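Bench notes, bay 3.
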Amino acid sequence: MKLRASFNVAVGVDTCGKAKPDKRIFLHAVNKLGIQPKETIFVGDSIERDHNGAKNAGLKALLIDRDRKAPADIEKIQRLEEALAYISNV
């Protein structure tokens, strides 16, 4: 299966020259998509690299908190499947 064909944009350190949590990699991704950071929800499972990186770039961040260990002030889900329900309620 060619997973890359399922996505409009693929961004990584090799395409941007920056790695998470550097906000420039998040901004590179939204720029490639032609959208604004405030229009974007980034879903990830690392508070530092994903959640904080996305927030610092002005994106809405949603943490996958499988072990229920994240602080209460972080918006989170337990399973990736919950992201669609979350998005439809935003």
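Next record in the batch:
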Amino acid sequence: MRRFLFILPMFLTVASYAAQVVRGPYIEDPTQTTMILRWQTDENTPTWLEYGPAPRCNQIMKISPEGTQHKAVLYGLVPNQDFCYRLYVYNAAKDGLQAPIEGSFRTLYSPERKVVKFLAFGNTAGENAGPKALLASQMAQKEADFVIHTGDLTASGLNEDADGEFFTPYKEVLAKTPLFVALGANEYGPEREQRESKSFVRSNYSRFHDMSWSNATPKYYFFDTANARFIFLDANAAYGAVWAPNIDEKSTQYKWLQTALGGAAEKWKIVVVNAPMYSTGAKGPAHEAAARFVPLFEKYGVDLVLQGAEANYERTFPMLKDEPNQRGVTYITLGGGGATPTKRMGSHRSTARFVAGHHFAEMKIVDRKLTIHVYNDQGKQIDQVELYL
């Protein structure tokens, strides 16, 4: 990597305000050779980003032009590598820069790697600041390659609520852990059943998030890292979102899923979808989505499905043809990222564990073994399970 030797203040011009970073920095769409960082300031200002392979954080500089919405696409990275960065903004005296905001990230792994560590949580809707602060503090202490969100970032789906309900409470986690999201019903807005809602996702979600396209759309995508394939679906048509992608057997998404699963070969196959295939929570299973997708999961040997929508934790036994079977698929609902927990509303032979409470999961793949630890907002382990490829 080529190092720039100029000094940051050389770029300073007269500024009338010491702008503040009010969102981020947060990291999205990692690959083996690229990464995207985004941040937002409260006033128009240029900003500066230094980065490099850890611990040499100042090897390359990128300048984000004057504005409030800032985005840096980092190219030319290498797989399996830890990077660090520093983000600079003007100081109040207008004669230098504020202390940098520091963070780190890790590129995705090449196929020969057999170890992957990641966090997963979901349903951060609502203003339950206390539980979110506790969860975020614990998550920030974990070493993870990336974090998965199972959908419903906010209650309204509005960008104006995203800071208070998501970006601010989980700021420390997002500054060092690349984020992947499965769109939830809330991302389509409260009027998602109306055709007038067409621009809602584009105006409130897509403008501020970068997801892998994977030859499909930002609403459903997959990525590979080490010996695992992670597939993100959008099943919100089952919740009446008229502008969500179709999920019937003739739909583009269904055919894409067949290809994504069929091409995963002997990798771990982990699916993330907001609508639960199995659930005994307040909303219950998304029957339409389950009827479409579960047969594909079973046919192609999906190992784990991470679900959202509910405001509870629930894990099934491995399920095959709607019965517990060790050759089946395990489904885990992760909906305790901040929404007010809901109680179990019924029973089903699929349920192995149910907890009404705030929580997150820490997962680790080591070759052919996947270990899952789930913790509540007090740091107590509420579930543990091991899966084998």
